Amino acid sequence: MEIILGQALFLLFCSILACFFTFSTTRSKRKSPGAVVTPPGPPRLPIIGNIHLVGKNPHRSFADLSKTYGPIMSLKFGSLNTVVIASPEAAREVLRTHDQILSYRSPTNSIRSLNHHKVSVVWLPSSSAHWRMLRKLSVNLLFSPQRIEATKALRLRKMKELVSFMSESSEREEAVDISRASFITTLNIISNILFSVDLGSYDSKKSSAFQDAVTGLMEAIGNPDLANYFPFLRYLDLQGNTKSIKVCTDRLFMAFRGFINAKIAERLLRNNHNEVSNIDFVDALLQFTERDEAELNTNDIEHLLLDMFGAGTDTNSSTVEWAMSELLRNPKTLAKAQAEIDRVIGQKGVVEESDILELPYLAAVVKETFRLHPAAPLLVPRKAEADVEVLGYLVPKDTQVLVNVWAIGRDPSVWENPMKFEPERFMGKDIDVKGRDYELTPFGAGRRICPGLPLAVKIVPLMLASLLYSFDWKLPNDVVSEELDMDETFGLTLHKTKPLHAVPVKKRTH
Ligand code: HEM
């Protein structure tokens, strides 16, 4: 209701402004011969700039505009100067050549409302010592090859729980909400890696307050917010985002505090704090804080946990949902992926991580899903720390820089038949998602590349392979596979507007 009211106020605001002002143009003027100009962009309305050109799905609106204005384009949203990148060459310039200058962040209003940007690994500028420490801690204590290996058994256990939940639905011949099931699986993997607790439940009657708070937080952060463009609106909270975010984060921080305090008490009871071999992330962070020179406090730990849940759950689960949707829409591709899995796993009864390396077609299915449905279609907004020249254009200091990886993934000059789901295009090719191939960077690249990549590239294929190995899949009666609704909703992550429901049918062979 508050959101609708906010949108109505916004439309009114825009129309009044449009009545009073005339068009201006953004084409930058060459100040003197040889001087660098800002990138081209569409004409702007005074005050609101180009806000009226951004629809519900900004990545789509930007992709359309880039067809006219080119791979590096200027837009203005209220007081916020923005540059949108839409080609692999331009992405390379931003994410590699000028990575250092363009690695600042542009925190949204909701992030500021929590003071999260002052302590967050996602939002701190990359030049800050605190960011470097948080990033190093995350990489070493969560995502190093040793830590990924140490949590392998946990992921296998969570896949077995997912398969067992699907088996129950299969016996009842019931359709399952794939988005919810994969979200709960990912949530439990991450909550166990962080502090050895299950926080999600497949049983909808037992749905936990924590699970609801994570989902609520993501929705609120993903909502459009006028205060991002007009900072003076911050205190009015027209769309109610700040209020919703506060409610959800209060709940999450309270839960985190409970887990951290329990760990501290447990550590005090033990004589040798570090004797436990199988420590989780919070254990490891507490060990770190006990060092004299450590500049990390409980508040930092709570915000770091918030970042990991915020960045790590929805991204994984929506990728699995998109992959399953594409496979159900393309039965031949589904059959081919299943045939490969059956051939490699045979009668073993369970898919293990070591099997994944033997499944190149499945790997291609995952890449094709990242190409068409990147979880963060504009990456996480970056900001210019200083004036910088990109492809001959000036990107002034403090400009927000968005890399439209969604548009690059669907560009016909980069991909043949870009709108078709064809994993075959990756077979025998060297293209990967690890930030070196600028036509496919769903995890970003450079110094701000997603640190969770090593975990995500384990979870996504393993979950997909487990679902495809144990079950055949049917769409509910009234849905025809070619007509499966693939509409997207832009938010913190790019979601399927209508969650995928599918019926698991237990395979007879294993
Ligand atoms: C399919 C899964 C995932 C996708 C597609 C994804 C994508 C991204 C993207 C695009 C960025 C911004 C990169 C940039 O600015 O260039 C990012 C940043 C980040 N991701 Fe992920 N991510 C995924 C999973 C995870 C997981 C599992 C975690 C942790 C548990 C995680 C934690 C983070 C963090 C902390 C950042 C901020 C890094 C920084 O700003 O320095 N992500 N991710």
UniProtKB/TrEMBL annotation:
Keywords: Heme, Iron, Metal-binding, Monooxygenase, Oxidoreductase. InterPro entries: Cyt_P450, Cyt_P450_CS, Cyt_P450_E_grp-I, Cyt_P450_sf. One of its GO terms (molecular function) is oxidoreductase activity, acting on paired donors, with incorporation or reduction of molecular oxygen. Heme binds at C450. Its cofactor is heme. Pfam families: p450 (PF00067). Signal peptide: none annotated. It comes from the Eukaryota. Belongs to the cytochrome P450 family. This is Cytochrome P450. It comes from Microthlaspi erraticum.
